[in-house]
Structures are given as C-alpha cells and as structure tokens.
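Troubleshooting entry. The earlier prediction with pyridoxal-5'-phosphate gave an output that would not parse, so I re-checked the input for stray whitespace and re-submitted. Clean input:
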Amino acid sequence: MRFDTRLIHARQPPDPLTGAVNPPIYLSSTFRQRAPNEHQGWVYGRSGNPTRAVLEAAIGDLESGAGGLAFSSGLGALVTLLEEFPSGSRIVAGDDLYGGTWRLFEHHRRQFGLRVDYVDTSEPDAVAAAFASPADLLYVESPTNPLLKISDLRALARIAHAHGARMAVDNTFATPALQRPLELGADIVLHSTTKYLGGHSDVIGGALVLRKAADVERFAWLQNAAGAVPSPFDCFLVLRGIHTLGVRMRAHTAAATAVARALEGHRRVRAVHYPGLRSHPQYALARRQMDGSGGIVSVEVAGGMRAARRFVAGLEVFTLAESLGGVESLVDHPASMTHASVPKAERERHGVRDGLLRLSCGIEDPADLVDDVRAALRRL
Ligand SMILES: *Cc1c(COP(=O)(O)O)cnc(C)c1O
C-alpha cells in the first residue's frame, strides 16, 4: 500500500469484536484475569491498552520501524529514551534543538553525569570530528527548530554506526509523510505527536519508533518502568489526526512555500529560513531527502525585539502562541517564548536572535496567509 492509504489502514483493522471502523477508546485501567497470571494479553493500563496499541502499531508502520511506542508528551518520550543511557554516557547532539530538549539534556548532564556535546549536524565533518572521542548516541533534529537547518541523515547514520553509536532523529517537523529517518539508517525516531501527527492543537503526546525489534522490547520495558504513557482518549485523538496527515502536510507545504516567497527579498527582512527556497543552504539535500519542505518558516526581521513585536502585532490570521503543526497558523517568538530557557548568548551564537519569528503555516487559504504577513511587514 502507498503512504496515504497506510495512514488510514496500516495496522488499523476494524474492531474484531464489533466491526467499528475506529478503535474503541478502552477506558479501563485494569483487565480481568481468569486465574492468577492468566489473561487475554491486557493486564494494567500503564503496561498496555488496546487503543494505545493501535496507535503504536500505526506509527511504527508509518515510520518503517519494527514497532512504535506512545508517550504522554514528546518530552515524556525523550526522558524515557534517556533512561537507556547510564551516567557517563556521551551524546553528540545538534546545536539547534527544541528548547525543551536542550533543557532536559542539560538537566541530565548536571544531575546524572550524562556527557553532551552540541555540534552543527548539518556539517557531517563537524559530527565526524565530535566522534573522535567515543559516544553512545547521535541525536539529530532535521529540519531543526527554529532555524530549519537540514542534516544529511544517511551520512550521519554512517558516522554514528562506524563508531558503534546509535542515531536518534526527532522527526516532529517533517513527519513520516515527508521523511522517514529509519529508512535512511537511523535507529530511533522521536515525535512530539502534539504537533503534526495530532494536527489539531488539541492533544499533548509523544512517540518513539525503533528500527530493531530488540529495541522495541527494551523501550517498551522502559515505557512501562518509567510510566510516561498517554491516556486512551489522547491515543484516539492522535490516531484520528494521523488519518489526514498526507493531505495536511501537502497543504502546510503549499502555504509555507507561499509565505516564504512573500517574505523573501523584503527590505525589512534580514533572512528567511525555509528548506523549499533555493536560497536555503541545504536546498538540494532537502529535495533529495524529503518529500516536501513542510509547514514551518522562520523569518528574521531587521530591528530586533521591537521590530519582532510590531510584526506580531500586525498579524491577524496567525495567532501568537507556542506550538506548531496544527490546522491553524501560529506565530512564535523563540527568544522570549519557546527558546527562552536557552541563555541569550547561547541562543545568539546559533543564530536565534531577538528579531527571529517562527511561523507555523496552517491549512487556511495560502492567499490569506500571504496577505497577513504582507500587512505585518508594512508595519515595520
Ligand atoms: C514540541 C516539540 C518537542 C516536545 O514535545 P512535547 O509534546 O511538547 O513534550 C520536541 N521536539 C520538537 C521538535 C518539538 O517541536
């Protein structure tokens, strides 16, 4: 089956009991046993739930993995991933990460003796140099948040594996509709399903997908041991979102492309970051590695914080809010919102300056989104 068909049918058979085409929401924390340890495969809601199992199987299939696991949030998935790495382990991570990811890495560094080095993963040579000393995990976002840098996942997996390390990719921005890291050699995919997989800004969730069956078993054990699991209702919402992922990602990409073009070249715009623009440094790689450029555009306006605030105030269709990936367009000011937990000097060293804005282009009519950013630009 092709991808858009798999979104709706892969590992999602009608309910065997009733024929319901959607999985029932099994609101039961526990399951009857006929005799001690004699059960029907379901024991306790943290260890497993039938609604969650459908979501997990579907995500696992869409990412071409051996299996998927669902979590209560993206960071719930990440903290469970980190349970795998004892103190003294070394992680080589991208230097333009989701702020909460960076915060959790730093917490584990200070609190539990994890060693973390940050490098620009869009430069394979920089990654190879970081592997001069041994490491256990290469952790990559592509595209990155908020600068939309693209990393060559196939090349990076080769480097990690040559040094006996595993590679994890946060695929939240691209989604499996546009990019499947496990097919390019990654070992682990992480998602904040809060974003595009859920797709409607109405649920917080996360997922891990593993390339190897042994890793599925290992992380299922950690999922149960650490307990950051989602509710059955939230699993249903994410699964419902997944059904329309294909059409939504095409609409998001069309909208973002129109918005990026409208911003590019304006005299008050210092830079537009979007992998679908020819001016993007990894444009050719993005074309090769992805089936579309996605819905996020970041733009740096001239004039720093004051200009950024004026631009935001001039938007009517874009709502000022954290998060991304929903049907409605959102604008974020990373320096004061999503990335405020990263110190200013650290942020600016990586290009997240005060004039930077991140636009999550929704699936409204692209012409209205273009009109909206043009009106905001006129206020600068
Ligand atoms: C939002 C986000 C996360 C964290 O996910 P939550 O669901 O908010 O915990 C991780 N990575 C990326 C790229 C994100 O955008």
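This one parsed fine. The mean pLDDT is 97.
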